[in-house]
Amino acid sequence: MAILTVEDLSKSYGRIQALKKVSFSVPEGSVFGILGPNGSGKTTMLGTIMDILKPTSGTYKLFDEAPTELHRRRIGTLLETPNFYHYLSGVKNLEIAAEIKQHGKEDIPRVLEMVDLTKRKDSKFSTYSLGMKQRLAIASCLLGNPKVLVFDEPTNGLDPVGIAEIRELMKTLYREGKTIIMASHLLDEVEKVCTHVAILRKGELITSGDVNEILSNEDMVEVGAKNSERLIEVLQKMPGQTRVTKEGGMVKVFYPVGTADLEAINNFCFGKDIILNHLILKKKSLESRFFELTNN
User: Fold this and answer.
1) Per-residue pLDDT reduced to its tens digit, 46-59
2) In sequence order, what DSSP letters do the residues of the chain get, joined into one string?
3) pLDDT tens digits along 88-103
4) What is the tally of structural domains in the chain?
5) Cα–Cα distance for residue pair 46/269, rounded to 1 Å
6) Domain boundary among 214, 238, 262
């Protein structure tokens, strides 16, 4: 089942097009990152999904159905800084949040434990670090045990310790079967946390799919010869490569990032009586792939 399906979604503010016919699908049980520089349309996308904003055109579905308020009640969201009371404790703030969301208070001990705040539940919110404040906000999202969580820049403004805490929490929630949709401008975050990604640039979808395929942190070399089966057989015996694949008639050989040597590949194949007619380094690294996608 697709948790979210977006079809040709557009959003305009006068002459400014924040989203331009964006389409992608979020599979159940994934951590789906909406990645892009500031101003790429990430927050607009999340706001539209949660019915804070109305799309100019296009459609979207939640849980494979036309979205309703009932569907949205099954989603825990953190789209902006929550309005916690600084003079109240963590647990008191969650009690207020539970009442607003019409969830029982009996769920509070569970969510505090999940975000590792049980020992500080009676401390005033004003004494919390930024990372703890963000974890309390996530605890509020977890009230009622939603299967789907939507976060907008969940590590924004945090120090390295806070960032590590939130990322580890994301991984824990994923392992427990939650589907997470999160916007981020941080390439590193998407690489370390997400299973799938959609990359936006100035409101346009550049690409979407499996993180390992789109943001490959490997050198990938496209190689061609008259006899592709023989070429694959030879390349599989070449030292240093991690795997050899054939996709759409093109042979691809992969190496740990920064280790692909085109001259060595050419010489190795020539020594095995194979004349190459195609030899191109396609992906240099995760970072160069991201800049290639967002800046071209």
Assistant:
1) 999 999 999 999 99
2) -EEEEEEEEEEEETTEEEEEEEEEEEETT-EEEEE--TTSSHHHHHHHHTTSS--SEEEEEETTB---HHHHTTEEEE-S-----TTSBHHHHHHHHHHHTT--GGGHHHHHHHTT-GGGTTSBGGGS-HHHHHHHHHHHHHTT--SEEEEESTTTT--HHHHHHHHHHHHHHHHTT-EEEEEES-HHHHHHH-SEEEEEETTEEEEEEEHHHHT--EEEEEEEES-HHHHHHHHTTSTT--EEEEETTEEEEEEETT---HHHHHHHHHHTT--EEEEEEEE--HHHHHHHHHH-
3) 999 999 999 999 888 8
4) 2
5) 50
6) 214
Is 40 in the same domain as 98? yes
Range of the domain at 270: 217-295
Over residues 185-229, the pLDDT tens digits come to 888 888 889 999 999 989 999 888 888 777 766 788 999 999 989
Domain end call among 194, 214, 234: 214
